[in-house]
Structure formats: structure tokens, C-alpha cells
Amino acid sequence: MKTMEDAAAFLKEAGTYYLATDEGGQPRVRPFGTANIFEGKLYIQTGKRKPVSKQMHANPRIEICAFKDGTWLRIAAKAVEDDRREARKSMLDAYPELRAMYDEDDGNTEVFCLEDAEAVFSSFTAPEERIAF
């Protein structure tokens, strides 16, 4: 049985995943690359100045899709901002290369916890596996 940790590992190993948001009824999809477990929950990161941040605040329902080695992962979730410094620091410590652009105290770095999530692992050669977290 797959777990949230498996979903996080899949996203990290894929390197790039695609995050879909809503902008006034128009879907918006863009590449992302952060996935971190903090306090037993899966987090993603962006900058507050980016349109994706505004979109997630206006409508927190998001979807993520990643593909790796013939398997794809889709996650539907509610993205909830965690404004604690510890959460931002944990993400940046997990992705030190981001420190060239972000800092936990810069007023721009933003992390979102994925809540009410359903993840589906799919391929053409195996039954799909669903998990909730």
C-alpha cells in the first residue's frame, strides 16, 4: 500500500511535476519542483509575488501531476498556506539551491500544506493505487 511518503518521494524523483490552479475559471498549469514533508504533512513552495500564489489563495483546490518510469501520479488537494518560519525553513533546508532566490525571512517565500488530499498512482501495466492524506 502506498503512503504520503511514497507520493513525496515520487515527486522528488520525478524532479518536475505540474501544478494546476484556477484563475477565474481558466485552468493554469506550470512546472514545479518542491515537495517536502514537514511535521508529517506534504508541503510545496512558491513565492508570494507569483500569480500562482494569488490563485491558490483565491481557490485553494489544486491538482498535481507527475510522470516517472511509466507511472504517473495525480494529487488533488487543498493548498493551505503555513506562514510559520519553521515550515519555510524546513522547505529551504530541503532545497538549498533555492536559497539563491528565497529566504525564510524574505517576506516572499511561501509554503503550502496539502490537505484533504487524494493521490492516485497509475500506469498501463498495474492497477491504480489510491491514498488519502
Task: State the main characteristics.
133 residues, alpha+beta, Pnp Oxidase, Chain A, eight-stranded antiparallel sheet, 3 helices, globular
In words, what does this structure look like?
The chain is built from three helices and eight strands; from the N terminus they run H-E-E-E-E-H-E-E-H-E-E. It has about 130 residues and is an alpha+beta fold. It has a single domain (about 5-130), classed as Electron Transport, Fmn-binding Protein, Chain A (Pnp Oxidase, Chain A). Strands 1, 2, 3, 4, 5, 6, 7 and 8 form an eight-stranded antiparallel β-sheet that branches. Strand 3 and strand 4 (about 40-45) form a beta hairpin. The protein is globular and about 45 Å long. The model has no long low-confidence stretch (mean pLDDT about 100).
